[in-house]
Amino acid sequence: MNTEIKTLKGWNEFAEQTGKYSWYEYAKVGDIVDESIIDNFTNILPPKTMSYGYLQVGEPYSHRYDLDRRLKPTYMTFAKCDGIWRYYGHCFSYETINRD
């Protein structure tokens, strides 16, 4: 697992060096992120779900079938555990299981 902490500054430097501006090219599921990333995603869209140590970005990323074969939206998800924020990928509401 990658132990490098993903930061907004690092994302901007990555974009300048590579010409790739997408979050998905900079970060991978399981990456540690700092508060600047959380603040960025909190400020660009109203959150879908936000509570202490948990953030889901406001607009659905995609739709996936759940175990009951219901089509449900997935959201970019971040969660904090033991004081460390991680990127969990695209999860159903209130979950931290990547569905993509």
Please give a handful of descriptors for the protein shown:
7 strands; 100 residues; 3 helices; 33% strand; 25% helix; alpha+beta; seven-stranded mixed beta sheet
The rough form would be described as globular
Mean pLDDT: 94
Strand count, sense and closure of the main sheet?
7 strands, mixed
Assembly type? single chain
**Helical percent range?**
25-40%
What structural class do helix, strand and pairing data support? alpha+beta
Summarize the helix and strand pattern as letters: EHHEHEEEEE
- The count of strands amounts to 7
Number of helices: 3
Compute the separation of the termini in Å.
18 Å
Radius of gyration: 14 Å
Number of domains: 1
Estimate the strand proportion.
Answer: 25-35%
Low-confidence residue ranges: none
Task: Describe it.
This protein has 100 residues and is an alpha+beta fold. It has one domain. The chain is 25% helix and 33% strand. Strands 1, 2, 3, 4, 5, 6 and 7 form a seven-stranded mixed beta sheet that branches. The chain is globular, with a radius of gyration of 14 Å. It starts with a strand and ends in a 9-residue tail after the last strand. The mean pLDDT is 94.
Question: Topology, pairings included?
Answer:
Layout (H helix, E strand, L loop, with lengths): L4 E2 L1 H11 L4 H4 L5 E2 L1 H10 L4 E3 L2 E3 L5 E4 L5 E11 L2 E8 L9
Parallel strand pairs: 1-2
Antiparallel strand pairs: 2-7, 3-4, 4-6, 5-6, 6-7
